[in-house]
Write a structure and sequence with these properties.
Largest sheet: 6 strands, antiparallel
Low-confidence stretches: 1-37
Helix content: 25-40%
Strand content: 25-35%
Distance between the termini: 49 Å
Number of strands: 18
Amino acid sequence: MMNSNDRINNYTSLIEDDYEEKTQIVEEKSLIKNLKNTKAYLIEIYGENLGKKTEIETDRAIIGREARCNIVINSNSVSRKHAMIYKKYIDMGNHNSMHSFWIRDLGSTNGTYVGDQPINDIELMNGDTIKVGSTIFKFIIGSDVETAYFEEIYNMTIVDGLTEIHNKRYFLESLEKEISRAKRYERPLCLIMFDIDFFKKINDTYGHLTGDYVLKKMSQVIRDSIRREEIFARYGGEEFAIIMPETPKKSAVTLAEKVRQLIETTIFSFEGHVVPVTISLGVADLNKSISSALELIAFADKNLYKAKHSGRNCVIG
């Protein structure tokens, strides 16, 4: 990763190579001014205060459970003083300076994560995700943070903040559209509903942070294994759905079995624990007796519960 000094050297080299001396002075001052005036925000994209925007106004901001922290997260998975976002200044000469934003873990019990990786002390980049306990923030910085904020708010209406796949709202709207289209053109349409077997036991045994990890990794593995036109969404809790346009039931059952085997053979390892994960799946196809999205969901859910009662880790369709 490029450090702050390397960035300054790169900027200076770029200016010296491409501009005359007079232009160089203007560009350096402009650069300093822009970086000094840049605002930075945290947007909560997963947690109790979904959508909340907090500006990093001071030279350092403490994130933690303690009431005196700048950013308070009232959760037992968060340490009293969990992490610190701070500005790192670089002297540019002539009484000018510029800064970048960094985050440091403060010896927290459960660690601080940036982009799914545990960190000790790292520079933050625009768009980074920060996970503190079960809460996830998006870090945004730039001259037009308001636009970026409203874009993020829109994303939250269609994307689940933890798993980064579509959410229930987007799923329901998409399913209604696909049902209308399938009926209009007399094309096949299938729905897979599935959930994680004994997920409560995973949370109780390994903790909720491990449960979050399982949800996210499973979502990533499945998302990367299905076609782009198939709509994958988190329906709620540990239950998920895949809408399969232009797909007959036999092919949908085949895909469901492929997904089941994929999750069964994937290694889920978090903080030194290997967690066994399996899923149960129910498949339903659109037929003349079904007139709405809720009816198709109920049909798929019925088969999902049959899979549960058949010993789990299987497909019913």
